[in-house]
Amino acid sequence: MSDSDLLGRPLERLIGPKTAKAFEEAFGYLTVADLLTHYPRRYIRRGELTAIDEIPVGSEATILAEILSVKVKKIPRRKGGILEVVVTDGQAKLLLTFFNQVWRERELKVGREGLFAGKITLFNGKRQLSHPEYQLIPDGDNVDGAIDEFAGRLIPIYPATSKLPSWKIEQSIEILLDQIADIDDLLPAEILESEKLIPYARALRQVHQPDDLQSASDAKRRLTFDEAFILQLILVKRREAIRRLHSHPILVGKGRGLVVRFDAALPFSLTAGQNRVWQEIAADLASEGPMYRLLQGEVGSGKTVLALRAMVAAADSAGQAALLAPTEVLATQHYRNLLSILGPLAEGGMLGSEVDALRVELLTGSIPQAEKKRIHDGLREGSIDLVIGTHALISEGVEFARLDLLVIDEQHRFGVEQRDALRERSENAPHILVMTATPIPRTVAMTVFGDLDVSILDELPQGRSPITTHVIPVLSKPHFLDRAWVRIREEVGKGRQAYVVAPRISSSSPAKRTDEKSEDPEKERAKQMRERVARLLAEELPDGIADGGDGESMASVEEFFEVLNDGALSGLRIAVLHGRMTPDEKDQTMSAFKSGEIDVLVSTTVIEVGVDVANATVMVILDADRFGVSQLHQLRGRVGRGSEPGLCLLVTRSEEESPSMQRLQAVASTLDGFELSRVDLEQRREGNVLGASQSGTRSHLRLLRVLEDEAMIIAARERATELLARDSHLDTVPALRDFVIRRERESDTAFVEKG
Ligand code: ADP
Ligand code: MG
């Protein structure tokens, strides 16, 4: 049996069907590899008793403690009784209670040490464990304990359940370890050497049964590197495979001069940063293999302009280009923006239009069926040059004559499937440009988007004004809120506009993280996918909102519209915007706001991404603690887009000192999106970030931490790139090759199953 077969063996053959079933139920484990990667959370040493006081009530704990006293309490008129055992760490005490198990008195002797596991509860103000699982440590009195297996060794403490306490897990793993004692190493020897890693078999043994803490830590390092390395191998391989596809080169400046005309129509010239990024994009576009690039940049840094320019370049070289936007509001905005820049150049297909003019269309779920059909036809025949749309663009029935460039706005709202779906629409692979305004730390980009190249726009165009952010703690300083409304009045008095953002639509509606209605019922699935990706990535909301939390007390758009209209903001022109309005209503409201017919827009997060009204200078975010750090950063990017400074007020009912207050303070203290996305990541289970990894390798990452293991991820990326450059099919390392192929196949099916 080969080594990889060994790791893939079903658990029941080694540890018996009953225990195997328990592992499946508790953790979903099926194979030897699954259980071997169930790593200890920590290690404890005999004699080093667990500090009882420090264990939070309600947690599942495994503690090492000494028995202090044992007492049997009779229950009146009943047989049996309650056995009460008090254990101690030398200072604090913990009560263990066993009902009708008085016989345990025989083994639970005063002075014995043992591991006790269960849920810590509070009874009469005292910590206790009722019916704990336990394992006594053999000691001198115990004649049977001839093998003093506990003496001096480190005891692994595993994530456990009541059916599978830590020591049971330990026993099962021990059985597996004996089987794999001389398993081959998948990693090439030179990588082990250059990264100073211990062999695989030893690492597995030492992580579960360490000789000492140093060995445990060496073992973890080795196993963490494996996770990073395999992931990077898959991503780099995929990246290389994509680059080997064929696409139409787009040679900027070689066509009819449309790009020059586009530039001439821009009311500004590109910043140095935009020019630099443009060079990167242009080089990609000119190549035979497809561009596959992520363009990161703060809100307003001028990404969209570059994307539109690339689209015009594609049309100029006789291809088609599509822009996929996450919401209808945004798609419409991009469409209008493009039309206004192109002017007569966008009147292709119209009567009397000039010869070179491009035909530009907007395709969203809400446009009438007949119109849709007309656009579908135009895309198929190639008479449409540029199309901007929402998910309707990737629905069934949309075919392109020659899609050469696909721009995806706000990556976080799309999964890898959407990218693939569009790529498969065409004989030649389109160039793909993904734009995101949520800054992603380098190693996250390397892991979550590891198959894309990354460009960063790190400066804002000239004349952009800074945004000032303040937290308004309504609990301690309620009068500050009144001042917020006064500020809005002042700004409106100066001819400016304002946003008021609330976490939900009406007081009866459940909290929702994204309130865009699905435009096309068939695309509900795509929407769910998008939401899943969004949830897992950096623009996450705090938990409360995802599960509805104490939704009752959250500010709502409708409620505040009324309150402000009748009160603090009466006399101003106020309108609402949210996802329950029809696309037409939304569109009309946005246009009216843009043209200055509305002073104050009370809305949900529909305005979160990309909405661009330069005259808006104030934003008040109600119950701001309900939003994620990155999302708040996105939201406030809506103000200060013109020459006037922007002001963002984060209203919260959080307690001073509370974690949510700290998050808001962090947002108020910096405008650096990268810094904030770090804060965001640090506060969330990072596993989730990697879990959403577009490689689909969710279940395989147990140790890797995107921030902590930054250096290792970078090293793994380098080693993976080197190895593949030398041996693109991994033929010199067949065992590794087979492993990677299996992993890739698993991730493919994982996607199918999850769908
Ligand atoms: P992003 O897509 O990164 O949010 P946009 O491309 O939408 O940014 O640009 C934001 C605003 O800044 C738009 O109004 C755009 O016209 C303007 N803009 C873009 N590039 C420049 C520039 N180089 N100089 C001045 N204004 C610019
Ligand atoms: Mg944008």
TrEMBL record:
Region span, Disordered:
503-526
- Please list the GO biological process terms of this entry: DNA repair
Which SUPFAM superfamilies is this protein grouped with? Nucleic acid-binding proteins, P-loop containing nucleoside triphosphate hydrolases
List, for all copies, the residue spans of the domain called Helicase C-terminal. Answer: 528-682
A Pfam family matched by this chain, by name?
Answer: Helicase_C
| Compositional bias of kind Basic and acidic residues | 512-526
Keyword entries, A-Z:
ATP-binding, DNA damage, DNA repair, DNA-binding, Helicase, Hydrolase, Nucleotide-binding
- Protein name in UniProt: Unannotated protein
Helicase ATP-binding domain location, by residue?
A: 284-457
| Keyword Ligase carried by entry | no
Q: Which molecular-function annotation in GO is an example for this chain?
A: DNA binding
Mark the transmembrane ranges: none
